[in-house]
Amino acid sequence: MDNSSGVGVLDKAALVLSALESGPATLAGLVASTGLARPTAHRLAVALEHHRMVARDMQGRFILGPRLAELAAAAGEDRLLASAGPVLTHLRDVTGESAQLYRRQGDMRICVAAAERLSGLRDTVPVGSTLPMKAGSAAQILMAWEEPERLHRGLQGARFTATALSGVRRRGWAQSIGEREPGVASVSAPVRGPSNRVVASVSVSGPIERLTRHPGRMHAQAVIDAAARLTEALRRGN
Questions:
Q1: Separation of alpha carbons 40 and 224, rounded Å
Q2: Residues 172 and 144 sit within 8 Å (Cβ to Cβ)
Q3: Are 25 and 57 contacting, i.e. CB atoms less than 8 angstroms apart?
Q4: Percent of the chain scored above 90 by pLDDT?
Q5: What confidence tens digit (pLDDT) does each residue in 6-23 have?
Q6: Mean of the pLDDT values across residues 124-136?
Q7: Within 10 A of 233 (CB to CB), how many other CB atoms are there?
Q8: To 10 degrees, what angle do helices 8-20 and 27-34 make?
Q9: Is the sign of the CA dihedral 13, 14, 19, 24 positive or negative?
Q10: Which residues form the HTH iclR-type domain (predicted)?
Q11: What is the longest distance spanned by two Cα atoms in the chain?
Q12: Is-contact 190 205, C-beta < 8 A?
């Protein structure tokens, strides 16, 4: 069977990734398993490393990179969204507040599902809304478990600190009071994919008058439970 797509550089990059599927490889190992010229194998492996599709192990050998796990998690998004509706509706009913599900996309986070409070004062975040990663409890959750270098970059200009994110990791949930928008409080918890990586954040949000200045005391457990149900749904589907 001809595995050529007609786009030479992509075919060669695919060869490199396929070669790493069986485990770590030195440059010599890549050359042997792909049949590529040594300079070509090196150039492609380093380029793929730049895009985080390839990484290095402790011995400096090439291995598959973290970006592939992220893409695999995104491929499970339909499963996540299929489970999100009932979970968010239940969370809204238990807390009496609007519930949202956020995913990270680059330097932003996107509301991919929501269940609105049915009446009274509410914090409405329409599905499809793009919000910054610099403020809000959902941003804290999506940032807290990042790789150190990405975490450091993300904290530049953020309304929260490394110390705050350390507390988030310890507790397993985040809260914000007027951080993203004056007068609005929120509580969030992480949804994890089959590889245990944080792939989304479940949140409830509403006015500080109702959620108080300690919203986690009121709603952290309900949000954690909702996140756990979505995590379980992703693991069942794997």
A1: 48
A2: no
A3: no
A4: 61
A5: 888 999 999 999 999 888
A6: 86
A7: 18
A8: 120
A9: positive
A10: 7-66
A11: 67
A12: no
Task: Quote the tokens at residue 113.
Answer: 């599902």
Task: Quote the radius of gyration of the chain (alpha carbons, Å).
Answer: 21
Structure tokens belonging to residue 116: 């609105």
pLDDT average, residue stretch 46-67: 92
Total residue count of the chain as it appears in this document: 238
- Distance, CA of 229 to CA of 204 (rounded, Å): 15
User: Under 8 Å CB-to-CB from 107, ≥6 apart: which residues?
Assistant: 132, 133, 154
Quick one: average pLDDT of 38-56? 95
CB 27 within 8 A of CB 42: yes
Looking at residue 94, its amino acid is V
pLDDT of residue 76: 61
Residue from 110, 76, 116 nearest 92 by CA: 116
**Residue pair 207/183 in contact by the 8 Å Cβ criterion:** yes
Q: Are 140 and 229 in contact (CB under 8 A)?
A: no
pLDDT computed for residue 1 by the predictor: 39
